Amino acid sequence: MNIDILPTREYAIQLESNGNQLIIVLKDNSLPEVLEFQNGVSVGKGTYSHEALAEAIVLSNNISSHVTPLLPQGCIKFVEGSLKSYCFISVKGRNRPLYYHEAEIQDIPFPTLIMGYELLKENNGAGYIVNNVYVVTVDEEFINEDTEVFVYPYSNVGEDYQVCLGSTQLPKIQRISQLSTYPELFFNGQNTDCYYSHANESKYSFRELLEQVKGREFPSSYLKPIGMNLHEWMTSIALVI
Questions:
Q1: What is the distance between the alpha carbons of residues 19 and 40, in angstroms, rounded to a whole number?
Q2: What is the separation of C-alpha 177 from the centre of its chain, rounded to a whole number of angstroms?
Q3: Which of 58, 169, 183, 232 is the most buried (most CB within 10 A)?
Q4: What percentage of the chain carries pLDDT values higher than 90?
Q5: Phi, psi (rounded to 5 degrees) for 130
Q6: 26-35: Cβ within 8 A, 24+ apart
Q7: Residue 152: which of 108, 83, 198 has the closest Cα?
């Protein structure tokens, strides 16, 4: 590809292949002009929109696109590396049972959660190991990169936003789309008082908080900000290699 600067701020781009030559003339205040030659003989001339010209160049150079796998319901971001991948899922807030020690407490409000799954590719290429799970909270129905992020307000999530799985080993997956069912594994897990002390601004013990919020929406004033927006938080988690 050759680029020549012409008088009056015009630019000529020459594309040559097997005796065929295209000259694309770009001007300041008009549409691009394309001249086509075969073995030095003019065979065509035309004016095209910038969009049409860009699409033609992309197709002619066989620029490949990246196609993601089928993603799970609620996926808001998927990051793929050579060894690790990350899938972030938004789980809309609603009231659910919460399992606290041996008790099942009904109608506990869960705000909208963002759950990040760190996946390790198996050496034989047969699937993925779910290596870590991360959880934070948002207080908006419609989220974007600038949405403020809060600490998960209950227990079992550390200050690094990582879920304490204890001795639980999550099942492997063969396809990324299988993560659709994984949030329920989190909700069905047993809660203790681990990591609760930093989780919210309520000043209640975990048991007292459950009694206060049961049957209600989770109070926004109890949520503890982490000092990052959603884009910043996901970027801090998804360190791919």
A1: 8
A2: 14
A3: 183
A4: 60
A5: -80, 100
A6: none
A7: 198
Residue 86 to residues 120, 173, 192: CA-CA distances in angstroms? 9, 13, 27
How far is the C-alpha of 96 from the C-alpha of 107, rounded, in Å? 5
The alpha carbon of residue 57 and the mean position of all alpha carbons in its chain are separated, in whole angstroms, by 29
pLDDT at 1 exceeding the cut of 60: no
Tokens 């601004």 appear where? Answer: 201
Q: How much is the pLDDT for 159?
A: 94
Q: Do strands 75-80 and 41-47 pair parallel, antiparallel, or not at all (unpaired)?
A: unpaired
Residue pair 111/91 in contact (Cβ under 8 Å)? The answer is: no
pLDDT: is 170 or 138 the higher one?
A: 138
Q: Give pLDDT tens digits for 150-194.
A: 999 999 999 999 999 877 778 899 999 999 999 999 999 999 999
Q: For tokens 């197709």, name the residue.
A: 59
pTM: 0.73
Q: What is the DSSP letter of 173?
A: B
**Nearest residue to 195 via CA among 157, 223, 146:** 157
